[in-house]
Amino acid sequence: MKNILKFAFGFGLIAIIVVIFYQTSTESSSDYSTRIYTVNSGFGYEISLHNKILIKQDNIPAIQNEIPFCNEDDANKIAALVIDKLERKVAPTISKIELQENKIVLNCLN
Hints:
This protein has 110 residues and is of the alpha+beta class. Helix content is 45%, strand content 20%. The protein has 3 helices and 3 strands, in the order αβββαα. The longest helix has 27 residues, at 2-28. It starts with a helix and ends in a 9-residue tail after the last helix.
């Protein structure tokens, strides 16, 4: 009888872990996708939802000058931030403070 209880407890525990893992993995997936591309002498990004382009950003947002991102990593960081805002249903605008917090390089010559 004890073996049956141990088996049932073990099976139940594994089932709970599988359910938690499944819910966590499906909640973290996003319907948005990002594509980083080269533009002029730098990088921009595109954000799509179900293969429809929502945002195409050739330049670093929130600054006066129209300059592209200096590297792919910076473009990717800001694209991820925009997607996070879209998922939270917040206006996908970027501020200068957010550029500083993400250590976005604004002058590619340095």
